[in-house]
Batch of 3 targets.
Target 1
Amino acid sequence: MNGITFKYLILTLLFNTFSANKVKDGNFTPIVLWHGMGDSCCFSFSLGAVKEKLEEILPGVHVVSLRIGSSEVNDVENGYFLHPDKQINMACNLIQADPLLSDGFNGIGFSQGAQFLRGLLQRCPKVHIKNLISLGGQHQGVYGLPNCGSLSHSICDYIRRLLNHAAYLEWVQKALVQATYWHDPLHEQEYKNYSTFLSDINNEITINDEYVQRLQTLDNFVLVKFDNDTIVEPRETEWFGFYKPGQSSMIQTLKESPIYTEDRLGLRKLDEDSKLHFLGVIGNHLQFEWGWFQKNIIDPYLKN
C-alpha cells in the first residue's frame, strides 16, 4: 500500500550481500508489475529498480511496469483517486496493445496492485496470467489506514476519517480508491452491498462464474504475507483472512470463511489442485531481502 517503504526494499537490493545466480539468456515468460498506493510504475527507488533487477537476473525478459496515467505523477494520483474499475480497464487496454504479452505473462502485484491484478485477470477476457504473485495484497480488504504514503499528514487524516465514517457513501466510493476495498466487519452487509470493487471481485453477493473460471486458468496463485506488517490492517488479509463478522479482534482464516467453504471464488479448487500457495516473510510492508525473493519467487515461478 505504501510506496515509501520501497526505499527500504531498494536499499536491500543494492546492499544485500546475497549474490544471485544469473541464468543464461532465454525465452522467459514476460512479467507485468502493478505498483501499490503512493508509488508509481517507474520510480528509481521502487518499481524501476525492481524492473532492472528482474531484467538483470532473467536476461532478455520483457518486463512491463504498468503506468496508470499520462505521467508518473498522474500514476501516483490515480492510485488514490481513480476508481479501480477504470484502472483495470486502462491496464486491460495497455496489455492487449502489447504483442509480447499476447501469449500470457507472470503478474506481480505490490500491495493494492495485487488485488487490482486479480481483478484484471477476472475481468479482462484476453489477459492470460500464468503465475499471479501477490506481495502484501489486501484481498479481503482493510479496516484501518495507519499510513497513506506520499500524501501529507492532513490529507491522510482526512482520508482516514472519511473511511471510518463514510466509506460506503456513493460519492466516497467514486472519489477514493481505498474506500473501494474498505471492509468494515462491524457492518458486514453494508460492505457487501455498497463496496463498488472488492465485494464484486470476491463474489460476495452473487457468484460470477466467469470470475471463478478465469482464476482456474492460473498455474499458481502465490500469496505473500509480511509477518511484521504495520501498514495493512489486518495483515491476514494478505492471505485472504479477515476479522470474523461483527467484531474487529478475532481473525477468520481463508479456510474458515464462506469464500472458501462455499468456494465462491474457486480458491478451494485452486488449493485442492496445489495451485494456491501461502508464503510468509519477516519484515514490514513490502520489505524483503532480494535473496528471499530469488529463492521463493523468481526460481520457482519466473524462470519457466
Target 2
Amino acid sequence: MASLVLFNGAKTHTGVLGIVCLNASKASYSTDVPSWYRPLKSTNPATFKRGPGGRSSFNGVVATVFGCSGFLGRYVVNKLGKIGSQVICPYRADSAEVQHLKVMGDLGQILFHPYYLRDEESIRKAMKYSNVVINLVGRDWETKNFSFNDVHVDGARRLARIARESGVEKFIHLSALNASEHPTPCYYKDGSKFLQSKFHGENAVREEFPNATIIRPSDMYGQEDRFLTYYAHFWRRFIRLVPLWQNGNKTVKQPVFVGDVAQGIVNAIKDPDAVGQIIQAVGPRRYLLRELVDWFFRVMRKDESWGYIRYDARFDPTFKLKVALTEAIQLSHPIGNLHKERVEREYVTDVVEKSVPTLEDLGVQLTFMEDQVPWELRPFRAGLYYDSAIGEFQKPAPPQVLA
C-alpha cells in the first residue's frame, strides 16, 4: 500500500525504490510475527524485572494485600511500594478510604479492586496476576455481620484456598502471639475468643496452603494504634483511677513497633527460608504491664499535671459494668477501644518460644520503645504546646526491663 501512495497508483513501476517499498509494505502488518520475536519462557512476573531498584523500578513482586486499609496494612503497602513492587489493594468499603495508599508507589504500581470476604469471584480477581498474597484481615471485636470465626477462620481458609488454586507462590498470614486453642482466662472466665479464633485460623491456612508463612505479632504500637491510644484515652480510666488486673504485676508484655512487623513481612517475601515457617513478631525487650502504664503517663506528664492512682481491677465491679455499657451503646466502634476482648487480651502474658524464629532472624533491626513511644504519645501530652527545650520538666525515666 505504501508504494501505491508514493507512486500514485503506478502498479507497473519496476524501479529499485518501488521494489523496496513493496517489500517493506508486506512486513508492516501488525499481525505478522517479527523475526526478532521469541516466545516467553515463563509468565512469572519476576521475569519482567526492570530498573536498578527502588521506587521507580519493578522488582518482580506482584502482591495482593488483603487488609491494606488497616493499621498494619498501610505500613506494608508503603514498604512494598518503596522497593518497586506492584501492589493490588482490595477494599470492601468506600474507595476514598484507601486512596491515601496510591502515593505509596510509583505511577501505576498501586492498584485497587473491590472485594467481599464471602465473594470468591471478587477474591479470585484480586489475586489473579499476583505471585504473593498477604492476609492482614482481622477484627478486634465481633459485629453483627462478622464474628471472629467468620474473619479469622473461614475468611483465612477461603483466601488461602483461592491463592493455592490461582498458583500463588507465597502466602503470608497474620496471626497473633499467644494464639491458643484454649486460652488461659484472666479477667473473664471464658478467656479470649480472639486468640482462640486466631489459633484455628492458623490451622485452616495450613490445611489449604501448607507452605504459608505465619506471622505472630504481639501488641503493635505506632500512629493510630490500639495499644498506646488505648491507655491514653480518657475512657480507659476513672478520672484519676486506672484499673489493672492484679495491679499489672502479673502481666508481662513485649510490644513491637508496627514498622518492624511490616519490614518483617517484606523480608519474608524475599527470604526462601521463611517459606512454611512461623515467625514471632515481638519487640526486643520485656516489661511488666505496671511499668509500661506508669511510663506512658510519665511521658504524657499526667502525673505532674493532675496525678493518677493505679489499683487492682479485680475488686472493682464498676469497671466490668463500664465495659459492658460501652459494648451496649457502641454503634460501629467502641468508645476508646474499650470492649471485653480488649480488656481480656490486655492481661495475657506474652509467651515467646525460643525454638521459633523471630523478626531478627529475618534481618529486621528492632526498634526500642524508649526511642519511639515519646514521639507517638506526643499528641496526648498534658502540655501539648509546651516547649520541652525549656527543661522545666525532667525527662521521664524509662520503664524497668525484665531479664
Target 3
Amino acid sequence: MSASIKNLQPCIPLPLDEAQLLDVVEKAKDWAIMHGAAMRSKQDFNPDALLFAPFILTPSSFPRKEFQKAVNLQPLLNELIHAVAHDSQFLLSTLSSTEKVDDFTRSLITIYRTVLSEGIAQTVTLALLRSDYLPNFSDAIKQVEINTIASSFGGITTIMTPLHSYVLTELGQQEKLINLPENNALSGLCEAMVEAWKLQARPSAAILFIVEDVTYNICDQRFHEFYIRETFPHVAVIRRTLTQISQTGSLGVKKELLVGGTEVSVVYFRAGYEPGHYHGQSEWDARLLIERSLAIKCPSIQYHLAGTKKVQQALAKPDVLRRFVGDEIKIEAIRDIFTGLYSLDQNEGGDEAVLLALADPERFVLKPQREGGGNNVYGADIPVALKAMSNDERSAWILMERIFPPLSNGYMIRPNGPSPPTLVELVSELGIFGTIIGSKESVLYNKQVGHMLRTKLSSSNEGGVAAGSGALDSPYLID
C-alpha cells in the first residue's frame, strides 16, 4: 500500500541553510508565544506559564481542489448531522448494541432517554462542528471523523496563517502568501454562539463554558471568551467545571439554568466528552441538569451522540443517507468522502469485518466511541485487541479502512525540541469548521466558518495536538 504514496512538493525549497533555520525558528517561537499560539505544559504544569504550541515551521502543501471541496461540503454536512441528531429512533437503534457494553455511551443515552420522556425543554440546538479529512494517496479527501463536541483549535488555528505569513516573509518568500487561504474560524465560531444567545432574548443571561478541572489548551478556550467579550461586550461569559455546576447549578421556575446568581442561556461544552471528566454521579447529575434546562446547548445530548463513531459507521451504509438527505447529488457528494466503515456487532456482517481485519490488519484502524485522541488501535495491534475482546465488547468499536495520505517534508517545532530541528516526513489532516442553529423542524443558521491543519510525523499513528503527538499547521494550496 505504501508504495502508492507520493510526496507533495514543499511550499519552499528545503532543507534550509542551518544559520537561516536557527534564526527563523527563534523568531517563530517568540512570535507564537507573543500572539497566543501557546498551551500550558502537561509535564510541568504551572498556571502562570505557557509554552508555544507545537507547530510546523512552513505551511504544508494541500491539494487546492480538495480543500475547496471540503469547504463547499461543510454546510451540507452540518445539515446531515443536524438531521441525525434530531432523529431519536435512528440514534437509539444505531447505538443499542454499544449501549449494552460501553458504560460511557450508556450514561449519555440514559440522560437522552430521560429528557425525551420528560419532553425536551429547549428544542433549539447550537452545533460547532469540525469535519476532519485526510487526502488519500490519490489526493481525494476522505473523512476521518466529524466532531460534535469540543471541536477545538478554532482559536489558535486562526493565528497560524499570520504566523506562517511572518515566517515566509522572513525567508524572502512573500510571493507564496497568496496560496495561504484566509481563516476566520475564531470569529465564525464565536458569532454562532452569540447568534444562539440572541435567540434567547434574555440580555442579562450569560454564555457558560463547561471546562476541565485543569485546562492545558487554555489559549484556545480563552480566545473564544475574549473575542465574545471584546466584540459583544454586553454578552457575559462564565467558565465552570461540571463539578462546580453540580454544586451551584439549579433550574428556575421556567427551567431556566441558574449558576450561582447568574442565568445561563447558552452552554458551550469544552469538557464532558470523555469518562475522565465525570468523577462520579454528581458530574452526571450536572450534565442532566443542563440538558433539562431552557439553555441552548452546544452540543445537546443528542448532538453528542450523533458524533459517535457508531453513528458515523451507520451513515456509511448503503441507502442510510437517504433517510436524512433528499437530493441524489448531495448524497453522492457526501458518499464520495466516506471511506470503508464496518460494524463489529455480533452478526454476520460483524463477523465478516473481524475476518477482514485479521486477514490484513495494516489496511484498517480500530476505533472506540471516544473523542480527544490517543484511543485508536492500528495495524499489527488490531488482531491482539480483537482477540482480547468478548463478542459483546466488540460492539463498542468500529473498523475503518485506513487512509494513506501523501507525505510532505518539513520542520516540526516543539518545546524543548532539537536545535536545529531536523527535516522530517509528515502527513497532514484538514479540519473544516461548521456552525448550525435550529430545531427538528427548521434550520435557522448554517455556515462554514474556517479550517485547521494538524500535521504529524508520518511514523506516528495519532495526530492530536492537545494529546501531544501532532503540530499546528496551515494549508499551502497547490494545484
